[in-house]
Specification:
Layout lengths: L1 H52 L28 E4 L35 H11 L6 E4 L13 E9 L5 E7 L6 H7 L7 E2 L2 H8 L22 E4 L8 E3 L6 E5 L1 H10 L4 E4 L2
Parallel strand pairs: 3-7, 4-6, 6-9
Antiparallel strand pairs: 1-3, 2-8, 3-4, 3-5, 7-8
């Protein structure tokens, strides 16, 4: 008899299962509607109170949204590099890193370029070319790192001229003391396999300067290939005095990042920003 009862119960469940499911759904919906009514009532009361307090009779949904602040333009990240430093220092696959320097308060504000009288004619011609773009600079005698005093609120840069395994060249600008790991840099610049430093002959053939005089000012020459990507370390963006050789290793020309960007804009060359 027990078996017969179980069989009858199972049979009845199968027959009436659709009806039971519909009844269960209705019960669930009724419980949800009942539980939501107090919440909706509270929301209606709160909305009425907001509308009453608003001078225009409507809630200002943008009142608590902060106004976006102006930010620095996002510049594309990619490739780069060049092998000399404005300090004539030898570069290995990895150099020494340092914390980001304080943004100096002094800024170049000149109406004409300032330079020593013994600056070679080629350097003077370079400064005249910069003045054609309303870029006025200050050129001083280059001081080795060991001879600089702490009051010199300028940043000395090194310029790396590199090539990848396919023979493509890259120009990269960073702080003199920055730690540059070429293995990491190749990924950021999407270079083909590993980087190596361009040889002295390759520097002269492509940039038309000696290896110890590599500088971004070489791109003023139309003879420098436009296929060479130029990049700069992001931590130099706010610096107001960057030191580069004016085509001669015995001198340093000071220019702000803004003016460097302005120069590349006039030359219709892209300056790529990357993190190092």
């Amino acid at each position: 008899m027990l078996a017969a009862g179980l069989i009858s119960g199972v049979t009845a469940f199968i027959i009436y299962r659709p009806h039971l499911q519909r009844a269960l759904r209705r019960l669930t919906m009724w419980l949800m509607e009942t539980s939501m009514k107090p919440i909706e009532q509270n929301m209606d009361e709160h909305s009425t109170s907001i509308l009453a307090d608003s001078p225009s009779g409507k809630q200002n949904f943008n009142a608590n949204i902060p106004t976006p602040q102006n930010t620095s333009p996002n510049l594309n990240q990619t490739m780069l590099i060049s092998q000399s430093s404005a300090s004539n220092s030898e570069t290995d696959e990895s150099t020494t890193s340092s914390d980001e320097e304080e943004v100096p308060s002094n800024k170049i504000s000149l109406k004409s370029s300032v330079f020593p009288g013994d600056l070679p004619e080629e350097g003077k011609e370079l400064l005249k070319n910069l003045e054609n773009y309303s870029i006025f600079t200050e050129t001083v005698t280059y001081q080795p790192k060991s001879d600089r005093n702490n009051t010199d609120q300028t940043v000395y840069c090194k310029n790396l001229f590199l090539k990848d395994r396919k023979g493509k060249f890259y120009f990269f600008i960073c702080r003199e003391e920055s730690n540059v790991l070429l293995r990491q840099l190749k990924y950021k610049l999407k270079a083909h396999r590993n980087f190596s430093f361009a040889s002295p002959i390759e520097v002269e053939e492509n940039l038309h300067v000696l290896p110890g005089c590599i500088t971004p000012f070489v791109f003023l020459s139309e003879t420098v290939s436009r296929d060479i990507p130029v990049a700069i370390a992001r931590d130099l963006i706010l610096e107001k005095r960057l030191n580069f050789h004016p085509l001669h290793a015995d001198f340093a020309t000071r220019i702000s990042f803004g003016h460097l960007l302005k120069l590349f804009g006039h030359l219709k060359r892209k300056l790529i920003i990357i993190d190092v």
